[in-house]
Amino acid sequence: MGNVIGIGASPKRKEDQRFLTGRGNYVSDIKRPGMTAGVFVRSPHGHAILRGIDKSAALASSGVIAVLTGDDVADDGLGSLPCGWGITDAKGVPMKEPPFPMLAQDKVRFVGDMVAFVIAETPEQANAAAELLKIDYEVLPSVVGVLEAVRPGAPQLFDDVPNNICCDWELGDKAAVEAAFRKAAHVAKLSLVNNRLIGNPMEPRAAIAEYEPGTDRFTLWTTSQFPHVVRFLMGALVLNIPQHKLRVVAPDVGGGFGVKQFHYGEEAVITWAAKRVMRPIKWVASRSEGYVSDRHGRDHVTEAELALDETGKFLAFRVNTLANMGGYLSTFGPNIPTNLYGPLLGGVYTTPAIYCNVKVVFTNTVPVDAYRGAGRPEATFVLERIVDVAASEMGIDRVEIRRRNMIPKEAYPYQTPVLVQYDSGDPMGCLDGALVAADVKNFGIRKSESARKGKFRGLGYSTYVEACGLAPSRFAGRLGARGGLYESATVRVHPTGQVTVMIGTHNHGQGHETTFAQIVSDKLGVSFENVDIVFGDTDRVQFGMGTYGSRSLVVGGAALSKATDKVIAKGKKIASHLLEAAEADIQFEAGKFSVAGTDRAKTFEEIAGAAYVPHNYPLEVLEPGLEEQAYYDPVNFTYPGGCHIAEVEVDPETGTVTLVNYTAVDDVGTVINPMIVEGQLHGGIVQGVGQALFENAVYDEGSGQLLSGSLMDYCMPRADHLPMMKVATHSTLCTHTPMGVKGCGEVGTIGSPAAVINAVVDALSHLGVTHVDMPATPNRIWRLLQNASLPVAAE
Amino acid sequence: MKPFAYHQPAQIPEAAKLLTSIEDSKLVAGGMTLIPTLKQRLASPVALVDLSKLGGLKGITDDGATITIGAMTPHAVVAASKLVQTKIPGLAALASMIGDPAVRSRGTIGGSVANNDPAADYPAGVLGLGATIVTSTREIAADKFFLGLFETALEPGEIITAIRFPVPLRAGYAKFKAPASRYALVGVFVAKFVDGVRVAVTGVGPGVFRVPPMEAALSENFDPSAIAAIKIDTDGLTSDIHAEADYRAHLVTVMAKRAVDAALS
Ligand SMILES: Cc1cc2nc3c(=O)[nH]c(=O)nc-3n(C[C@H](O)[C@H](O)[C@H](O)COP(=O)(O)OP(=O)(O)OC[C@H]3O[C@@H](n4cnc5c(N)ncnc54)[C@H](O)[C@@H]3O)c2cc1C
After folding, report:
1. B159 pocket-lining for ligand 1 (C-beta < 6 Å)
2. Same domain for B109 and B232?
3. For residue A148, what is the enclosing H or E element?
4. Which atom, in ligand 1's list, is nearest to the CA of B177?
5. With bands split at pLDDT 50, 70 and 90, how would you rate the model's confidence at A795?
6. Domain named FAD-binding PCMH-type: which ranges (chain B) (predicted)?
7. Residue A791: pLDDT above 70?
8. Average pLDDT in the A71-89 region?
9. Cβ–Cβ gap A712/B176 under 8 Å
10. Mean per-residue pLDDT, A141-155
11. How far apart (Å, rounded) are the C-alpha atoms in residues A510 and B214?
């Protein structure tokens, strides 16, 4: 039976052995015979007409093999980069969906837009030749902010997209909301900006493409979170390569956070080019290149209003948002600020009427798409901020107003007015747990200590829920998804009893090789070491939608659980034959098939052996072999959530905000590996803290230049920015996933920004400060304090 | 990075000769500033002249009233030096606040001073202490050395060999780190000598500069309160996505007070 490590244990991560000893296999580690180097030439302008490209000097440069441009793409009749979601406006009119050519044609629409691809023997030669391209741009004014982009007279990105509005989307019962506002005792209002973010995975994007004339097959190695989806989108919709002639491999990938869950033009260009030059080509992005080409996240401008009765009960919530899409529609782009945003505006509260309008807007910036949390952090931020505003305006304690409006545990399943139905949850339990863990009752003492040092201390709450485990295909289809969102797993039991799992999710830091092995070890009673998880290769794995939206365990793990159940079911049939007992009498427990009530049993290994050496085997009714596959399409989203409490200290002299304490009590359903869950929460919280206090992608209006174009100007959170965090789970079980799991990949990022900003506002509330936009930088805080004309703190 | 020739001379005259005879050649010390600019193809010298094998450029010596730090001495060595910590603790503290451990292990005082980045830390220490820049051909007073944005009094082919610091009665450095880069958004070095106080500011404008009103006030009364009301003019100060000019000006006063505090502690 060996070393079973099951559900609830915290073994060290299997994959870390190779990562920590430098034996990972990343795209840029791969070398192919005869490999060449590719370099993308990108627009230095935010907005310009592309009048012509003179390739002659570049082509004559040493080592150059080819220079490809948008004209070559057009000549070969290739498709546009597809958008995976088609949303519609209130009248059912489809969104505007202008083409997104893989190399720019006629016009460039953001700094970083791809204009040409230079292929040479070495990267140095390709770079040198790239500098020799003569590109004739007629520069146009850029528009980068959403407010500016929808103003009359703003620069227009596309001739047929008036006012740069891609879609004017809405959700909810507008009339019911208006009626509720008319009878409200109090209306809280809030205008806010949700800052633009750059994902910054540790490993920059990279790709290698190769064409094999002997088999007429293409292979693309790419830094992707979803290789099968890349194969589908690129093969079927862009390059017209039949699926069986295209292999996409995403080997070890160094972090994604969403940045790598899109089909990028680079992938299509390099695959197409590999056949044109009949040599493998490698491209590895520099960090700076990533800044102007990795899809960005967030970037909303929002007006929100909350109607309350005299007791502080929420009557209705109205939200109007302008969401930045950047220069083109990326793979999930229009889905993020709409379907992943509006349905979350109910939060953990019983608000009966909600209306949300989102104008999805094109600007001369990098396309915006999903970034860890995707839509849900934005919704949580608006809601959790305005709850605090309402509490303070009505003189109700912030915890008390939350309690008065929270969905009680007994009310689940709970149907919200914005499509989603929460299956399970206990927000009050999370809140109570967090209040104790954060030692809120002694906050006053800590605040006085800070005051003695001339510092302002504040406490902030965020009680939130999110929707993850993307997604029920039928539901997603109604909302505009153009694909399914199930997951698949194959469990291959070898003749000697070891197990290889082929799964369609992708591990790029989450610890799947460990978590999934624990599930198999637990269910089959095989040794943890005897389970390997295979992912990321369309030639090895049957199919899959990949990893994003906290779906891997929830959807992929469910498929794995089902496939494992099928293995057990087949094992029982084999055992019933070998043990000469009725199938119904066979029990499977702790790696043994036994006849109930007897000591007659066969081990899992014996059954595997019999399946592959079927001498004594019911061949008439049962196929040999022991390998099962399952697809799982969820029946609902899962709804993890919880309560986060942030405690900050503000230095009024410099405006610096220091996060001094952080507590999270989250409901993530069943916990498979507590250590990994804690790690996911830590990482998620840090990214949320990054958004709240440090990170900001800033563009220059007019020129469209990215001002925060490197780590010198884009501030990532670092270890010394953070306190030791207190992280705990308070779980209710999901009622519809096989193991009761809810997912934990994004909760940290979703809950934390509001907690941190609520704490900052609390610290400054005695000065009349009611809101602080993110990131709460020292300069911004100092400016607020100036405007609050603070009697300057202790000199 | 574009291809370049690489030289590793053993003598200063040989290095100076290579520099003047090869057009478009550049010295490389720790490479922490130069190599990234080469990688980004922002500079493309035809030859690099590496200072690392030159004798006599590394190390710290005690000359009684002064201490001399060789140009090739890395920041980490200055930060950890018992001598510097004892005689000019503010300078050791400054070196310890530069970049991260990797940068402090490679980056050198000579490279930092020669580069004169407007947000670098050493220029504040060098100007604040009224140090002398010793080069392959002459000695230059700090007050005459820093000429503006990345500009110094160095002539083509001139190599910094050492920096000589007078030992003050007290000195302190306070740095407000730029959030992303952790260079100085505002850095203030304060040094008290028998004949008066020097205050040098980095990070806020095109180059390091002194603040005479603060120097006068602190010479009268070496206490943070003496300068609490002295604000510097925002004219010519940098305004960028991290800090507007008036915020930088405000921070100069705050950091100057903290530098005095540090000097007193
Ligand atoms: C991530 C990072 C963070 C950093 N953070 C900080 C910070 O917080 N504060 C700060 O002050 N600095 C910071 N730096 C810069 C660092 O201190 C560098 O070490 C320093 O600016 C240059 O020193 P170097 O020895 O690396 O010089 P190099 O990069 O080798 O050379 C820099 C320039 O000086 C010239 N030069 C070098 N030595 C001499 C000499 N002896 N005589 C004449 N010319 C010479 C070179 O030709 C070149 O033009 C940071 C750098 C990095 C990469």
Report:
1. yes
2. yes
3. helix A146-149
4. 8
5. very low
6. 1-170
7. no
8. 96
9. no
10. 98
11. 54
Atom of ligand 1 at shortest range from CA of B71: 41
B148, B257: one domain: yes
Give the model's pLDDT for residue A1: 53
Number of other CB atoms surrounding residue A90 within 10 Å: 12
- Domains and their CATH numbers in chain A: 16-22+486-632 (3.30.365.10), 33-140+202-255+260-291 (3.90.1170.50), 296-406+421-470+636-787 (3.30.365.10)
Mean pLDDT of B202-216: 97
What CA–CA distance (Å, rounded) separates B18 from B12?
10
Average pLDDT over residues A85-114: 97
The two structure tokens encoding residue A172: 């909810």
A404 and A427 Cβ atoms separated by less than 8 Å? no
pLDDT tens per residue across span A172-217: 999 999 999 999 999 999 999 999 999 999 999 999 999 999 999 9
Torsions phi, psi for A312 (to 5 deg): 90, 10
Residue A144 has pLDDT above 50, yes or no: yes
What's the CATH number where B13 sits? 3.30.43.10
Is cis: bond before A471, omega within 30 of 0?
A: yes
In a domain, B18, yes or no: yes
Q: Are residues B78 and B193 in the same domain?
A: yes
Q: Are B6 and B50 in contact (CB under 8 A)?
A: yes
Ligand 1 mean position to B122 CA, how many Å?
10
Q: Which residue of A has its CA nearest to B179?
A: A715
**Chain A residues with CB inside 8 Å of B225's CB?**
795
Average pLDDT estimate for A742-769: 97
Question: Nearest residue of B to residue A785 by CA position?
Answer: B247
Residues B26, B113 share a domain: no
User: Taking CA B181 as the corner, what is the angle to CA B178 and CA B187, rounded to the nearest 5 degrees?
Assistant: 40
**pLDDT tens, A412-464?**
999 999 999 999 999 999 999 999 999 999 999 999 999 999 999 999 999 99
**Is residue B185 a contact partner of residue B256, using CB atoms and an 8 Å limit?**
no
- Determine the residue of chain B that is closest to A706 in CA distance: B241
Q: A556 alpha carbon to ligand 1 midpoint, in Å?
A: 50
Residues B36, B80, single domain; the answer is no
Tell me, yes or no, if B251 comes closer than 8 A to chain A by beta carbon. Answer: yes
Q: Does ligand 1 have an atom closer than 6 angstroms to the CB of B32?
A: yes
Alpha helices in A497-603 (DSSP H): 512-524, 558-578
Residue B67 sits in which domain range?
60-264
Q: What is the pLDDT of residue A83?
A: 97
Of A694, A711, A713, the CB nearest to B241: A713
Please determine, for the modelled complex, whether the ipTM score is greater than 0.85.
Answer: yes
pLDDT confidence of A793, banded at 50, 70, 90?
very low
B41 & B69 share domain: no
- Asked whether the predicted pLDDT for residue B163 surpasses 70, the reply is yes
Domain membership of residue B55 (yes or no) is no
Tell me: pLDDT of A794 over 50: no
Q: Are residues B167 and B235 in the same domain?
A: yes
pLDDT band at A790 (very low <50, low <70, confident <90, very high): low
Same domain, B125 and B84: yes
How many beta-carbon pairs below 8 A join chains A and B?
Answer: 50
CB A110 within 8 A of CB A149: no
- Ligand 1, atom 21, residue with closest C-alpha: B112
How close B10 gets to chain A, by Cα (Å)? 31
Distance CA A32, CA A210 (A): 8
Q: Would the CB atoms of A795 and B179 count as touching at under 8 Å?
A: no
Residue recorded with tokens 């947000």: B119
User: Quick one: pLDDT band at residue B3, thresholds 50, 70, 90?
Assistant: confident
pTM exceeds 0.95, yes or no: yes
Separation of CA B16 and ligand 1 centre (Å): 19
Task: Indicate whether B203 belongs to any domain.
Answer: yes
Domain with residue B153: its CATH number is 3.30.465.10
Instruction: Report the domain count for chain B.
Output: 2
Interface of B with A in 137-176 (CB under 8 A): 176
CB atoms B254 and A654 under 8 Å: yes
- The residue behind tokens 């490590």 is A5
Q: Is B1 on the interface with A (CB under 8 A)?
A: yes
Residue B103 covered by a domain: yes
